[in-house]
Design goal:
Elements (H helix, E strand, L loop, with lengths): L9 E5 L20 E2 L2 E2 H11 L4 E6 L4 H6 L4 H10 L2 H9 L5 E6 L6 H6 L2 H4 L4 E4 L3 E3 L5 H12 L2 E7 L9 E9 L2 E9 L10 E9 L2 H8 L10 H8 L9 E5 L4 E3 L3 H14 L4 H14 L6
Parallel strand pairs: 1-4, 1-6, 4-5, 8-12
Antiparallel strand pairs: 2-3, 6-11, 7-13, 8-11, 9-10, 10-12
Helix pairs in contact: 3-4, 8-9, 10-11
């Protein structure tokens, strides 16, 4: 296990999923590139990592994910066209994605689950703790979850997972944690179950897509057999780590009560767009006015 004072500098973003829930839109376009207002979902995630001081970002990709690399690379022709038009505002926004972080990419190859995707990051990460950000979860920048988790890792060591209270009848959609209190805002994880039936869930605290992991996770993942769905489950590795400090544990949880947008679900994706658009100073006032009119005039006729 590394020292709890080890500096965290690297972020890993698994992005090899097929995005089947958004077909046919994702037939030729990675789900991570679907726009949330006027910015691809993946850019919000990279911005969150860099806001927490993680400027070394490894993206785990797969087939048909080349647009991700292109988005964070320079587009000289587009930049030149905007420059010649004098469109400095759009030029600045286009260039912003190319200077966010030092980006690296590795292909997962076979889609063998989240645990396997993280295992692909081992050569790049090395022997330091690192953050994992799942692209389906957008965390509002006003709620610095990742910074809080990194601070908890510095204080307590081990690995940190983000937890969120969910309705008990929705536990089958998440990994769920059994916990005990340790300190203000930090819980010791004593057990984890991947997508349990409500009657078997250890709590209603669900794991959401943010982790700060000890590098011992790589050794554990390498010895973990395939789990639910025949895939290598990160939850199974974290369960092992929660019982053995020598394997990168213990595992702690931070309960998140802020604003989170789930772009992996079609309904939540639409709600995320509406919420973020309403809060934009350039779009919000006019959009909110239209939305109020739509709700007042059209909604009573639906259903």
């Amino acid at each position: 296990m590394t020292s709890p004072r080890s500096r965290i500098s690297k972020a890993v973003i698994p992005a090899a999923g097929l995005g089947t829930r958004f077909l046919p839109a994702t037939k030729a376009t990675p789900k991570e590139m679907l726009p949330v207002v006027d910015q691809p979902a993946i850019q919000y995630v990279v911005e969150e990592a860099t806001a927490a001081g993680l400027t070394d970002v490894l993206m785990i990709t797969g087939r048909n994910k080349r647009p991700l690399e292109d988005h964070f690379d320079r587009n000289y022709e587009l930049e030149d066209a905007l420059r010649r038009k004098g469109d400095t505002e759009r030029l600045s926004r286009v260039q912003a994605s190319t200077t966010l972080a030092t980006m690296h990419y590795v292909r997962q190859g076979d889609p063998k689950g989240l645990g396997h995707a993280i295992l692909c990051a081992a050569p790049h990460v090395g022997d330091q703790p690192f953050a994992v950000l799942l692209g389906d979860d957008l965390i509002d920048p006003r709620d610095p979850l990742l910074t809080t988790m990194m601070e908890a890792q510095v204080e307590h060591g081990g690995s940190i997972i983000a937890l969120m209270e969910v309705d008990p009848d929705r536990t089958h959609l998440y990994g769920c944690a059994a916990v005990e209190p340790v300190a203000d805002g930090v819980l010791r994880v004593t057990g984890l179950v991947e997508k349990p039936d409500p009657a078997e869930a250890p709590s209603n605290l669900a794991i959401i897509g943010r982790y700060v992991l000890d590098p011992g996770v790589f050794e554990v993942l390498g010895k973990t057999p395939p789990g639910r769905g025949g895939e290598l489950q990160l939850t199974d590795a974290l369960q092992t780590m929660s019982t053995d400090s020598a394997l990168g544990g213990p595992v702690y949880g931070v309960v998140f009560k802020g604003r989170r947008y789930d772009t992996g679900d079609r309904g939540d994706y639409l709600r995320a767009i509406v919420r973020l658009a309403c809060e934009r100073p350039d779009l919000g006032p006019e959009f909110q006015k239209w939305l109020r009119t739509y709700v007042a005039e059209e909604m009573p006729t639906i259903g």
